[in-house]
Specification:
single chain; 308 residues; Rossmann fold; seven-stranded parallel β-sheet; 12 strands
């Protein structure tokens, strides 16, 4: 099988690269020009690297030659910033994806695995854990663009026979996640803790989220790439809710030091709780998380300590 990972040089994409290569796939990575390839440097000679503009159909077309499955991980925005410019969020994500889908159909791609967002497409949950059948009422532009792409995938499946799988992902964490970015609470908190810096928390720390170690994410992606059942949308998470205060306590236990925490005003787009029901993935692809939370924290801590 030949796979192309759109955004494969990033945190999630690089771990999917690892998993696909280990399973014997021929793997290509599509990234924006000048993107650092450090996350996949250990795979040099075992993967192909393509650079281009995701919204440029000719750039995409050249990377799609002979590809069976495309893993769509590209997003130009994050939940925190998406509401600042919804028009940019729409054009750079939804419109660019439609251009890609047209090229995928022309190239004879058989399947697209799309990385959606279990944390934003549902909005404020009516019940916990959240099943895939839950109403989708996103409260940020990021969740709206993810949901729109899900709908277009269904449309292209009906019109052109392009198979697809949607991953509504919880909150992934682990090695290679940038601890200086605006996304990813655990590496950011861990990095600041190791540096002895103050950790700022939006709100009182009671917000509950579903955290999943990155290798478990990659395992689910690989399973869905070859899945041939009737379901199309899958929650992928731990199925266990943890508050930010729980996370901070876990980090304290791992590093063995008291953290310096400062609580600030909460953010409007943060829903109070989000925990995914992963029963469908367990039943359809025989997938369950394997890395316990404390073990994941230890691995993340070890990785950060080893960095220059």
């Amino acid at each position: 099988m030949k796979g192309l990972i759109l955004g494969g040089g990033g945190f999630i994409g690089s771990h999917i690269c690892d998993a696909l290569v280990a399973e014997g796939w021929e793997v290509g990575v599509f990234e924006r020009p000048f993107r650092l390839s450090d996350n996949v440097a250990h795979l040099k000679g075992r993967i192909s690297w393509f650079e281009g503009d995701f919204s440029n159909s000719s750039d995409i077309a050249s990377a799609l030659e002979g590809v069976d499955v495309v893993f769509h991980l590209i997003s130009t925005t994050i939940p925190k910033t998406s509401n600042e410019n919804p028009l940019y969020d729409l054009t750079s994500n939804v419109c660019a994806t439609l251009s890609f889908l047209n090229e995928a159909v022309r190239a004879g791609v058989t399947k697209v695995v799309f990385m959606s967002s279990g944390g934003t497409v549902y909005g404020i949950p009516a019940r916990i854990p959240i099943p895939e059948s839950h109403p989708t009422e996103p409260v940020c532009a990021y969740g709206i663009h993810k949901l729109a792409i899900e709908k277009y995938l269904a449309l292209y499946s009906r019109n052109y026979g392009l198979d697809y799988a949607v991953i509504r992902l919880s909150n992934p964490y682990g090695p290679r996640m940038n601890p200086l970015s605006a996304q990813g609470a655990i590496p950011v908190f861990m990095y600041r803790a190791l540096k002895g810096q103050t950790i700022e928390i939006w709100g009182d720390g009671s917000i509950v989220r579903d955290y999943l170690y990155i290798t478990d994410v990659a395992r689910a992606v690989c399973a869905l790439a070859t899945y041939s059942g009737g379901e199309k949308i899958f929650n992928i998470g731990s199925g266990v809710g943890m508050s930010l205060n729980d996370v901070l306590k876990g980090i304290e236990d791992v590093i063995g030091e008291k953290l310096d925490i400062r609580y600030t005003e909460s953010r409007k787009f943060d829903v109070p709780a989000n925990v995914l029901d992963i029963t469908r993935a367990m039943n359809e692809i025989a997938w369950t998380p394997q890395i316990a939370f404390k073990e994941g924290l230890r691995r993340t801590c070890d990785f950060l300590k080893a960095q220059p």
